[in-house]
Write a structure and sequence with these properties.
The structure holds two protein chains of two kinds.
Chain A: E1 4-7, E2 10-13, E3 19-25, E4 31-38, E5 42-51, E6 54-57, E7 65-66, E8 76-78, E9 87-94, E10 103-104, E11 108-112
Parallel strand pairs in A: 2-11
Antiparallel strand pairs in A: 1-3, 3-8, 4-5, 4-9, 5-6, 7-8, 9-10, 9-11
Chain B: E1 4-6, E2 9-13, E3 18-24, E4 31-37, E5 43-50, E6 55-58, E7 61-66, E8 71-76, E9 85-91, E10 101-102, E11 106-111
Parallel strand pairs in B: 2-11
Antiparallel strand pairs in B: 1-3, 3-8, 4-5, 4-9, 6-7, 7-8, 9-10, 9-11
The chains are: A mainly beta, B mainly beta.
Chain lengths: 113, 112
């Protein structure tokens, strides 16, 4: 089944403890991106990647890192999480930027205390 | 700038048609999209329309695009209680690196 898989689905952590949210797609998509969803602020892009080893900042990249060493994986790294990073995170992929087929993962609900 | 606007709530009776409206400001997108989000779930791509089309029909879903007015709508025929969810319209303006610009979402409530 074609899908984007995120792990974990739920995570509670403490301020400053480094964490990684994994994202993997099995559709051979070139384009991958991360969004966060917050009440009243909607969905905002954090980072995106047009292909392996090519990443760029979205609208809210502060406090996050990403890497794209392989086509299928696009992990989101929080080096020193803070409470304002408590959010619902989504990974998405598509064949290429601006195409018709953006597929989203099921989301990761992160709470930083 | 890039902006997508939707009304926040819509309530309909089961069996009626639902129409969710959206306006956008950037007309450079090749595709416009409708996503559905159920409680506790991710974003499911419902349908999309190519920017040079006026209408697209997909089973119970009809998408209308008015490029002149920058208006997009989603009609759900014979709405069911299982259609209760939040519906987002979105676009990907050119020059934004493929970023999806989402509306705030319309919460559709279907009453039996």
């Amino acid at each position: 089944e074609a899908q984007v898989t995120q792990n974990p689905r739920y995570l509670i952590t403490v301020t400053g403890k480094k964490l990684t949210v994994t994202c993997s797609q099995n559709m051979n998509h070139e384009y991958m991106s991360w969004y966060r969803q917050d009440p009243g602020l909607g969905l905002r892009q954090i980072y995106y990647s047009m292909n392996v080893e090519v990443t760029d900042k979205g609208d809210v990249p502060e406090g996050y890192k990403v890497s794209r060493k392989e086509k299928r994986n696009f992990p989101l790294i929080l080096e020193s999480p803070s409470p304002n990073q408590t959010s619902l995170y989504f990974c998405a992929s598509s064949p290429r930027q601006g195409s018709y087929g953006y597929t989203f993962g099921s989301g990761t609900r992160l709470t930083v205390v | 700038g890039e902006d997508v606007e939707q009304s926040l709530f819509l309530s309909v009776r089961e069996g009626d048609s639902s129409v969710i409206n959206c306006t956008y400001t950037d007309s450079s997108s090749t595709y416009l999209y409708w996503y559905k989000q159920e409680p506790g779930a991710g974003l499911q791509l419902l349908t999309y329309i190519f920017s040079n089309m006026d209408m697209k029909q997909d089973q119970r879903l009809t998408v209308l695009l008015n490029k002149k007015d920058k208006h997009l709508s989603l009609r759900i025929a014979d709405t069911q209680t299982g259609d209760s969810a939040i519906y987002f319209c979105a676009e990907t303006p050119s020059g934004t690196g493929g970023k999806l610009i989402f509306g705030q979402g319309t919460e559709l409530s279907v009453k039996p």
